[in-house]
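step: validate -> pass
step: tokenize input -> pass
step: predict -> running
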Amino acid sequence: MSFTIEKIHHVAYRCKDAKETVEWYQKNLNMDFVLAFAEDYVPSTKAYDPYMHVFLDAGNGNVLAFFELPNQPEMGADPNTPDWVQHLALKVKDEQALLSAKAQLEANGIEVVGVTNHGIFHSIYFFDPNGHRLELTYDDPTSEQKISLITEEMKVDMLQEWSRTKRAPTHTQFLHSEELAEVKQVTPVGE
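step: predict -> pass
step: emit ->
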């Protein structure tokens, strides 16, 4: 290859209301509003489609952006994809920061799922006012040790097995063993 990706420049989602979205992210996630621009025509396609494009600081040079598109049909979710699949994960410093964020979100009337133990990181989940699922997470203190157990051969093996069977390979079940112990005893796989 003649190039390599340096980093994600920004991630963009659609929003219902640009002002409401900016204010929500400022209030609930302490993100700074860093840039906005608007046009009547889309620069890449030249199509007439007025929009407002807003940018928020997600820390360390990461940018989260939104488009408000008032002339398009009302936004919706993919009805064939479960709500938990498509999400944006944002990292916080540690357990205390995660618990503080959870308390603040709940105090602001936002329903929060978790703390969920993923073995190598711990997360909470919630939705923004546009219906986008967000995850706040911190790395488990043992994450490097656990990740080192997942070899290159294991990753390739898992992917090949999944591709063949469309069933979860068991190679890394140790990561969620604590979180899923109870449900696996009560509900057999596939039910």
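step: describe -> The chain has a mean pLDDT of 94.
step: cleanup -> pass
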